[in-house]
## 1
Amino acid sequence: MSPPPPARPADAARFVLDCRGRALDCGPGRAHVMGILNVTPDSFSDGGRHLDPSAALHRAEAMLEEGAVLIDVGGESTRPRGKAYGAGAAAVDADEEKRRVLPVIEAIAARLPEALLSVHTYEGGVAEAALAAGAHLVNDVTGLRLGEGTARAAAHYGAPLVVMHSLGQPGEMPHAHAYRDVVRDVKASLAAAVAKAEAAGVRDVVVDPGFGFGKTARENLRLLAHTDAFLGLGRPVLVGISRKSTIGAVLGSAKAPAHVDERLFGTLGATAAAVLGGAAIVRTHDVGATAEFLRVLTATMAERAETEAVR
Ligand code: HH2
């Protein structure tokens, strides 16, 4: 039997994102697919494939057909330096990031107006230019730790902002961090990020515990097992677990993880855990499989919610 659906949030309106005039309902039982579109030469899973805007447009079109509602366009990889990923991603300056993402955002906004476009950046100037080019929301993997430019840009354009938990500099594996209680510590850090975003004028904030990003497999599993704790922040929860090393470690071992191409079913298991815990947006490389998986999962959750309602 599936666990009971997460409780209805106290402030339901906060769970309907206003994506610059387009509503995205992230309330109980909803689960939307965010397809990953890395316009980078060095992302760990799809690097180099979509640098050309027409290839990126093609990929975006395919992801929408497969069931993505959001497309997350990023011009800088967060791939950390380390055993699993080699030298790590090269740092990219804001001008290069703009050169990569703006033509892609412009092309998708013009040709695929049904897409909700997210720009994956922690640079205020990139966020601002991407929103001017037609993006609908901003995904900041530093959770405003390196500055509040993305929040100011999102506030100016009336766009939602995703604040993800991470430590250290993007692209660098943070030094092992001793969490006192990983769920409590990440939640406290996200609460601070939400407060910063709202102080900068952002109306809709989405929180993300940031799977990976220097956390151990055990820490990631602990976060996943307690996704409902993040729902307690009263904001929609986004998760990005797709093909990550924790999946590889569980399917294989920490020393011999399952290959990145062999992590789909494991990723879907983690996705189920997150969505049953209340996550409403799932960032993934495998859009078709995830969308079908979520259709069945959310249909089951709806059935359960209906029975609970009449009891
Ligand atoms: N994970 C990655 C990048 N961006 N954004 C959010 N909000 N949540 C995540 O978990 C997240 C993220 C890392 O994955 P990927 O995009 O595949 O790799 P790369 O950083 O190399 O582009």
## 2
Amino acid sequence: MCGIVGYVGPRQSQSILLSGLARLEYRGYDSAGIAVIDGDGALDMRKRAGKLGVLREDLKGAPMPDGTTGIGHTRWATHGGPTDLNAHPHLADDDKLAVIHNGIIENFAALKADLLSEGYEFRSETDTEVAAVLLGREYREAGGDLGAAFRATVRQLEGAFTLLAVHQDHPGLVVGARRNSPLVIGLGDGENFLGSDVAAFVEHTRNALAIGQDEIVAITPEGVEVTDFDGNPVQPEPFEVTWDAAAAEKGGWPSFMAKEVSEEPEAVANTLRGRIQDGAVVIPELEGLDDLFAGLSRIVIIACGTAAYAGQVGKYALEQWARVPVDVELAHEFRYREPVIGPDTLIVSISQSGETMDTLMAVKYARERGAKTLSICNTQGATIPRESDAVVYTHAGPEVAVASTKAFVAQITAQYLLALHIGRIRGTVSAVEAAEHVRELEAIPGKIQRVLETEQAHIEQLAHWMADTRSVLFLGRNVGYPIALEGALKLKEISYIHAEGFAAGELKHGPIALVEPGQPVFVLVPSPRHSALLHAKVVSNIQEIQARGARVIVVAEEGDAAVLPFADEVLHIPLAGALFEPLLAVVPLHIFAMGLANARGLDVDQPRNLAKSVTVE
Ligand code: M6R
């Protein structure tokens, strides 16, 4: 949450900062601000509540002097509401110093009390201003040594933070630090960048450096220096960004979500790419790491939101192919109940951003207790993979819309590859069976494409008709259950409609009481070819809700005639193996959520109260 960008170099920085913020806006959009050291050596700052557009308009109406050193921030409010005053940057040292922050400084109240008792004053309700004022005090005590002051400041802070600072007496220098919040360096030619993630600078450079936990960075036009909090030099890890700026543009689509749903086939194909050789799964990142899977007695998948639902789907494949018991845990629940884990436990974390604080903390907790950790992640250089023993990247490309779509199908695909990899190591899946599953996986991109081509217009029309709906229910069984949960989450997240997902078998244990005449219910119907029994059970669930007046919208495989008499609407998906159906069945639900939000005139990319990357607990 919160997007951060910093620049030093020969160019005027305002437009670089603003376009970096535009690419980071998915991280938070309550307010935005920039601070620049201008050509006359003075610090100028402008910040406004609201989306970045408000700040842009403000700067257009009343331009601010420009300069070649600057920082910018887009906020998701934690301490203090989304007002102009609480927006970042925050100033200190007689307004010569500007600070921006992502995270939560947990001991801010105690620090603030000390600073108040020393006569310092505050203008905002934020924890960030405490860090700024503290840095101002340390700067004076360090006799104007910004590096020393910064080290002294961060050593006093508790909690999670990425901090960037500029001081007008140090043009050509941006200092930053990180603990439990993200920060990466972009290496340019005679210019350098800092960003919450590479999106901040990918239009200028794809050469990046990852900054580790509890490290400080100073960038100048000439170079980059990284140290620990005590000033000892550290060698940052270089990496090259694998996507270009165009990948993070809308590219003619009405929204990022529309673009990202259209990229679901590609997300699966790219996650498979380079990991299949002669029908066998070969995951280069896991080469030489067989020990991770030796003596495994349990897998625990930890994740939040959509990533957790992907984990619930993955559980079926991991148990079926690798024959290891799998639990799926919400990361924020995991570490507060003394879970039973040890060296025989593999923790598989799933995170698109790789920065979700709840997931990160759960991974750290598990590692400290001796468990092995593997991250499934979509973002290079992110913190969770760096804190894990191994990583399998999903190659879905940058996901900008707050609602996760293409990352979901990529996360399922990566888990299926992992399940086959572990299954082969453990001898629980034969080469022939694995090759059959691989063939199914390889066919998925084409089948998702078919759903997009044949069903999108129908689903959008349905969503349009249902624009005034107040509540939608989703039912699924087996692998369809997490898809029902995902369909409901997506709908509430972007269309603000009450939605619930249920295991269809649970219906008679309570939820059926919600069904009244006209209640829309989506039902995910498993193929009768895989289990006539499961199919029959779902069909009888449909009859039960239809008898009570529900408006039934069925997602069923092409040719499933048994559901037709009981369905008001049928959305078809191509035939696929039982475990592969979720990769297809989720697509109509993503399209529906987007269509309904559009029909209600809502911003599908930036829904209210949310941010893409939840970097606070
Ligand atoms: O970046 P992550 O995958 O760790 O994010 C986890 C959840 O916050 C995320 O999936 C969230 O639920 C999405 N906004 C759902 O669309």
